[in-house]
């Protein structure tokens, strides 16, 4: 019998290569908090992964799996705002810039020198939401936060901790969110 299961790998095992076949020994079975699904994960100790001969029969292609295999959509209510992080990002590589007193900002990642006006404002938030019986913390990155702002006609709202916190707490009840591994991918209000 064969089927497909999601596996979460901890850092020390992340050197595995796509397209190769591995034999896993001693994986843990874990239950997803929000569904009846189960997934596999590497325990802290005792797990071994060895490369083995590839299968000779064709296998299901992970790219053909339905999106709901990894995404969950559920009714959600915002209980509170855990954090709002606003920062200026490099206009070339999009990485966070350290704001200095000098008017010329040098990106520590790609080295680009730029003025404040060239930088891109970014913001991400962590929300505590109620989903069924569970309270979980989910993250909305910049693009999703902007979608939510736009849906409420607030695209021009300044991205500060105060304004964004107030905006999120004044939202009408969120009807549903789609998320994957606690990262929100869409919000329906
Ligand atoms: Zn950069």
Automatic annotation (TrEMBL):
It holds the Pfam family Rep_fac-A_C. The lineage of its organism: Eukaryota, Metazoa, Cnidaria, Anthozoa, Hexacorallia. It comes from Pocillopora meandrina. Transmembrane segments: none annotated. This is Replication factor A C-terminal domain-containing protein. Residues 84-161 form the Replication factor A C-terminal domain.
């Amino acid at each position: 019998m064969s089927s497909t299961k999601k596996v979460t790998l901890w850092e020390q095992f992340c050197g595995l290569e796509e397209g190769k076949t591995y034999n896993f020994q001693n994986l843990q079975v874990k239950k997803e908090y929000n569904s009846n699904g189960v997934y596999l994960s590497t325990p802290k100790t005792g797990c071994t992964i060895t490369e083995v001969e590839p299968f000779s029969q064709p296998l299901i292609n992970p790219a053909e799996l339905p999106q709901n295999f990894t995404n969950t959509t559920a009714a959600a209510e915002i209980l509170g705002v855990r954090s709002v992080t606003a920062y200026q990002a490099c206009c070339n590589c999009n990485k966070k810039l350290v704001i200095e007193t000098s008017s010329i900002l040098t990106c520590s990642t790609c080295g680009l020198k730029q003025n404040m006006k060239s930088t891109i404002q970014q913001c991400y938030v962590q929300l505590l939401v109620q989903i069924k019986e569970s309270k979980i913390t989910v993250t909305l990155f910049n693009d999703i936060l902007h979608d939510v702002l736009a849906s409420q006609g607030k695209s021009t709202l300044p991205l500060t901790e105060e304004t964004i916190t107030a905006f999120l707490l004044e939202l009408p009840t969120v009807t549903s969110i789609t998320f994957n591994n606690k990262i929100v991918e869409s919000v329906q209000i």
